[in-house]
Write a structure and sequence with these properties.
Elements: E1 11-14, E2 21-24, E3 34-39, E4 43-51, E5 61-70, E6 75-80, E7 93-99, E8 104-109, E9 115-120, E10 127-132, E11 139-144, E12 148-153, E13 158-163, E14 168-174, E15 177-185, E16 189-194, E17 199-205, E18 211-216, E19 223-228, E20 231-236, E21 245-248, E22 254-259, E23 266-271, E24 277-284, E25 292-297, E26 300-304, E27 310-314, E28 318-323
Antiparallel strand pairs: 1-28, 2-3, 3-4, 4-5, 6-7, 7-8, 8-9, 10-11, 11-12, 12-13, 14-15, 15-16, 16-17, 18-19, 19-20, 20-21, 22-23, 23-24, 24-25, 26-27, 27-28
Pfam family, one: WD40
Organism: Microtus ochrogaster (Prairie vole)
Protein name: Nucleoporin Nup37
């Protein structure tokens, strides 16, 4: 008997297509609203949303599309640059995408006349994750099914290249550990690379495979979480290279893992995007059961709000938002 409440999304925003990926901007952008990006079959939309949890005079969600970028090919991943600023003149919107054609595109816009992108080529298979350097935003790291992790400068030149033992599934740069990079592989190994020495300095091991997604906890640099097989897995890197805690969570295989930006005990997982629906869950390390379970029509993408216990998931012609109490 499950004790968790199965809940519908608190808020939804209609989209013109199936949403493949969604990302809240994790950086302070100089505006009271929250920048959000989502990608479909051939476009990226940049929007601004504000929730009633933040502003009392708003009922539910206030959402506005700022710009739609034509992409020409399916969007698989989106990463925000810390250089994005809405309060500068002109404003700066900067993000990159990974796409089904195995290329990275770096977009820069002032939301008016300047809308340009640069193509970064080098991966020979699908790109599973990408991230900007969290401080200056002067580099991008990406991992791929081609068994490599690559670091690029903003001109599109590769500045580092790590060979992996299996497909790279997740890559994380921590704002407090800017000279280290975390790379998670499908075979269950998570490695931390020293970017000055360009070599691995620490590795973690999952007992389950395939590892599909891993994330470095923003609120505690010693915590790493992942999903592999049907389970979520948590490590404390000060204690052991083997997991501290493991729990079966999605019967249809787990797909994504994301720590909340505001608590080291709160995280979300999704099941595999199914033919009909996939499951979305929010977990708290102090609770044995998920504290929230939702169902999404073919859900994909998962992102936490920067300051609220609120998650976004992409759905069929919809963005869905769930709110939980900590």
């Amino acid at each position: 008997m499950k004790q968790d409440a199965t809940r519908n999304a608190a808020y939804t925003v209609d989209c013109e297509d199936y949403v493949h990926v969604v990302e809240f901007n994790p950086f302070e952008s100089g505006d009271s609203g929250n920048l959000i990006a989502y990608g479909g079959s051939n476009y990226v939309v940049i929007g601004l949303c504000t929730f009633q949890e933040e502003e009392a005079d708003i009922e539910g969600i206030q959402y506005k599309t700022l710009r739609t970028f034509h992409h020409g090919v399916r969007v698989d991943g989106i990463a925000w640059s810390p250089e994005t600023k809405l309060d500068s003149l002109p404003p700066v919107i900067k993000f990159c995408t990974s796409a089904a054609d195995m290329k990275i595109r770096l977009f820069t816009s002032d939301l008016q006349d300047k809308n340009e992108y640069k193509v970064l080529e080098g991966h020979s298979d699908f790109i599973n994750d990408l991230v900007f350097h969290p401080k200056e935003g002067h580099e991008i790291a990406s991992v791929s099914d081609d068994h490599t992790c690559r670091i690029w400068n903003l001109e599109g030149k590769q500045t580092a290249h790590f060979l992996l033992h299996s497909p790279g599934m997740s890559v994380c740069w921590h704002p407090e550990e800017a000279f280290k990079l975390m790379v998670a592989e499908k075979n269950g190994t998570i490695r931390f690379y020293d970017l000055m020495a360009q070599q691995a300095i620490l590795s973690l091991q999952s007992e389950q495979t395939p590892l599909m997604s891993a994330h470095w906890c923003l609120k505690n640099t010693f915590k790493v979480g992942a999903v592999a097989g049907n389970d979520w897995i948590i490590w404390d890197i000060t204690r052991s290279s083997y997991p501290q805690e493991t729990r079966p969570v999605h019967t249809d295989r787990a797909h994504l893992f994301r720590w909340s930006a505001i608590s080291e005990n709160l995280f979300a997982t999704t099941g595999y995007p199914g033919k009909m629906t996939s499951q979305f869950q929010i977990h708290h390390l102090g609770h044995s059961q998920p504290i929230l379970t939702g169902s999404v029509a073919v859900g994909s993408g998962l992102s936490w709000h920067r300051t609220l216990p609120l998650c976004a998931v992409g759905g069929d012609h919809k963005l869905l938002f769930w709110v939980t109490e900590i």
